C-alpha cells in the first residue's frame, strides 16, 4: 500500500504547498482522504486516473479539505465522462453540502451530478462504517464547530491509516491513532494557539500518548515547515510513503 501526499499545506497556501489531500493506493484502486481546492491539479501532476478513485473521505467542511470535489466532478462530467461509481463519505449532510458547493462554483451543474454514479455516506462519531473491503472509523475533533470536524481512520487490506483532520488537542486523538501503521497529525503552528489547531510545542509534550508506528505532520504554516532542530517527520507535497 502506498500513500501519496497530494497536499500538506495550510488554508493560506503558505510555502506554495497544496491543500490537504492524501491518496491511498492498493492494487490499482485509490482512496482519497480529504480533497482540498488544489487536489485535482496535483492528481493530474501525478498522472492519476480519476476512474480508479473509488472513494473520497472528507474530514470536515472547510474549502482546503473538501473544496476540490467540484473540480473532480466537472472533470468526471465533461472532460472524461466517468463510468465507475464514486462514494463520497463525510459528516452529516455531506450530500447537501457537496451539491451546494457544486452549484456555487459551477452554476447549473448540480442537477447534472445525477448523471454520475455517486453514493453519499454519512459517518458518525465513534462509529465504524463498512464500505466493501474498507472500514472507516471517525472521532469528533476540536475545530470550527460549523465545519463538523472529525478525525478519520481507514482500515484497508490489513493496514490502518489515521488522520487528525484540523484540530486542537483532544483526547479523541488517542483512540484515533491507536494501533495505526501511519498517523498523520496536523501541526499548524510552532507555539500554542487558542483553538482549532495544534502546535509543535504541544505535540512535543503529548506525542508519546499516540500509539502509532509512524507519525507525520500535516497542515503546516511556514514557521513549522521551515523550522530547524525539529523533532518530528514533516510531510511534503508529492511524497510517497510505503505502508
Ligand atoms: Zn479546517
List the helices and strands and how they pair.
Blueprint: E1 2-7, E2 21-26, E3 29-33, H1 39-45, E4 53-57, H2 63-66, H3 69-79, E5 86-90, H4 94-105, E6 118-122, E7 128-131, E8 134-140, E9 150-156, E10 159-163, H5 173-177, E11 182-186, H6 200-206, E12 215-218, H7 222-225, E13 233-234, E14 240-242
Zinc ion is lined by residues 60, 62, 65, 143, 147, 166.
Number of domains: 1
- The third-level CATH topology is Metallo-beta-lactamase, Chain A
Structural class: alpha/beta
CATH superfamily: Ribonuclease Z/Hydroxyacylglutathione hydrolase-like
- Name the average pLDDT: 97
Ranges where pLDDT stays below 50 over 5 or more residues in a row are none
Describe what this molecule looks like in 3D.
The chain has 243 residues and is α/β, with parallel strands linked by helices. The chain has one domain (2-242): 4-Layer Sandwich (Metallo-beta-lactamase, Chain A). It has helices at residues 39-45, 63-66, 69-79, 94-105, 173-177, 200-206, 222-225, and strands at 2-7, 21-26, 29-33, 53-57, 86-90, 118-122, 128-131, 134-140, 150-156, 159-163, 182-186, 215-218, 233-234, 240-242. The chain is globular. The structure holds zinc ion. Residues 60, 62, 65, 143, 147, 166 line the site of zinc ion (ZN).
Summary keywords:
binds zinc ion; 14 strands; alpha/beta; 243 residues; seven-stranded mixed beta sheet
Quick overview of this protein structure:
The chain is of the alpha/beta class.
Amino acid at each position: 500500500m502506498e500513500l501519496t501526499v497530494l497536499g500538506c499545506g495550510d488554508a493560506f497556501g503558505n510555502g506554495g504547498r497544496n491543500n490537504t489531500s492524501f491518496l491511498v493506493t492498493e492494487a490499482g484502486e485509490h482512496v482519497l482522504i480529504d480533497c482540498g481546492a488544489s487536489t485535482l491539479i496535483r492528481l493530474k501532476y501525478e498522472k492519476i486516473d480519476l476512474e480508479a478513485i473509488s472513494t473520497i473521505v472528507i474530514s470536515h467542511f472547510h474549502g482546503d479539505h473538501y473544496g476540490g470535489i467540484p473540480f473532480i466532478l466537472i472533470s468526471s462530467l465533461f472532460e472524461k465522462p466517468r463510468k465507475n461509481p464514486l462514494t463520497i463519505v463525510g459528516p452529516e449532510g455531506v450530500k447537501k453540502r457537496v451539491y451546494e458547493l457544486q452549484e456555487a462554483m459551477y452554476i447549473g451543474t448540480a442537477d447534472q451530478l445525477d448523471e454520475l454514479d455517486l453514493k453519499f455516506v454519512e459517518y458518525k462519531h465513534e462509529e465504524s462504517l463498512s464500505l466493501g473491503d474498507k472500514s472507516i472509523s471517525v472521532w469528533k475533533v476540536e475545530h470550527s464547530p460549523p465545519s463538523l470536524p472529525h478525525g478519520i481512520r481507514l482500515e484497508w487490506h490489513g493496514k490502518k491509516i489515521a488522520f487528525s483532520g484540523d484540530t486542537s488537542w483532544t483526547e479523541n486523538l488517542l483512540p484515533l491513532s491507536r494501533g495505526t501503521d501511519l498517523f498523520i497529525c496536523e501541526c499548524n503552528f510552532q507555539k500554542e494557539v487558542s483553538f482549532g489547531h495544534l502546535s509543535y510545542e504541544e505535540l512535543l509534550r503529548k506525542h508519546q500518548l499516540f500509539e502509532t508506528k509512524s507519525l507525520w505532520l500535516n497542515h503546516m504554516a511556514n514557521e513549522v515547515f521551515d523550522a530547524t532542530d525539529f523533532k518530528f517527520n514533516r510531510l511534503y507535497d508529492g511524497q510517497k510513503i510505503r505502508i
